[in-house]
Amino acid sequence: MEIQWFSSEEKIGTASFYNTNITLNTIASVPFEYAYRIQVGLDVNKNVVIRPLTKEKVQSGDLDEYAIYQISVKKTYARISSTGLMKKISEALKIELSDKPVKFSTSWNDAENILTIHINK
Q1: What pTM did the predictor assign?
Q2: How many alpha carbons fall within 13 Å on the CB side of residue 32?
């Protein structure tokens, strides 16, 4: 007997941008459960990327200390709180941020060890 098994679709993470923080939903926050700190940047397609960092990597002195951010991980979300960071993101992407969320889908790249927040989708 041949059986075709059903599998659930990969769930899509969501990142909500506010003027003071980035909030990741449960799915998007999973890769950061054990992160000590994070880095935030832009890729060539103007998508926001977030990389988890270990304590050893942060303490190695290889990274610019001003390019490292804290992330608070809770049971149902994770949050990166930095008004300065959000101002830089707002200016770079030419989007206006406020206390109302602007939501974007996310995807995790195992090979690069980064979460991509898809701005142009």
Answers
A1: 0.88
A2: 32
Token pair of 64, please? 């610019």
The helix/strand/coil state of 104 is strand
Neighbours of 36 (CB within 10 A): 16
Candidates 119, 118, 108; CA nearest to 35 is 108
Q: Which residue's entry shows tokens 């941008």?
A: 17
Q: How does pLDDT run across 33-89, given as a tens digit for each residue? A: 999 999 999 999 999 999 999 999 999 989 999 999 999 999 999 999 999 999 999
Measured distance CA(66)–CA(94) in Å, rounded: 22
The answer to whether residue 5 scores a pLDDT higher than 90 is no
The C-alpha atoms of residue 55 and residue 117 are separated, in whole angstroms, by: 24
CB-based burial label for 81 (10 Å; 0-12, 13-18, 19+): middle
Give the helix ranges, DSSP H, for the chain: 26-29, 55-59, 83-93
